[in-house]
Design goal:
alpha+beta; Jelly Rolls; 2 domains; three-stranded mixed sheet; 14 strands; 30% strand
Length: 261
Amino acid sequence: MRKLLSLALLTLLLAVVSCKKQPPAQPAAPGPEVHQQQTAPAPEADKPAAAQPQQTPPAAASGDLVAIPLVLPKPQFVGTPENLMGIANLDKKPDGWVQPPFMAPKGVVNVALNKPVTSSEPEPIMGELKMITDGDKEATDGSVVELGPFSQWVQVDLGESHEIYAVAVWHFHKQARVYFDVIVQVSDDPEFVTGVTTLFNSDTDNSSGLGVGQDKNYVDDRNGLVVDGKGTKGRYVRCYSAGNNSSDLNHYIEVEVYGKK
């Protein structure tokens, strides 16, 4: 009798436990559908948050700045460049370096093209002063103006005052040369006595008498020298040099002044 009672109680217990385990098993069927509803929108919700930072920089952030219409001449080095290691304060560019685009406000052009040129040496040893602004910057023999030794300058009259954003100078790029005491100045005074702004000065010992410069010597190759004019106003641009590592003579192929009224 007791055995029958025990079996009955055991059967009843198993039935109760079975009933308690079934409710959790029922949600298992809709489980995949709930999972899909939660995970499918998640990537869509994340996408706008990730895309927002990419849209924040406005297209007009660069303002009205554009690259000046600077065209570099062809490379014309002849023979093996001389050893320039002994030149102090030399700005060493990597092989194959090319002048990057120079940015300036829209409307900036070469206001020096075909403008009159004067010099500390009115009668050059070779060439004519007008060649310095004729637009020909190639390193051919017929494009070079040669001035005498020591410190010499050439001056471009822009005709009227301009906002100057860049001055580009090519001395001589048929060989790898370094020209010394290179100075670029701007003024509204043709005598450069008053209102003079110095844009570049590599004269570190003031041997030219125009102040101690902080800029470096550089190899005059096809890139020439591109000086930041910073919007300086002036009618006249004067460029100095004091010989080079090959001779005491001074040379100019082209001077370009990028500005606007």
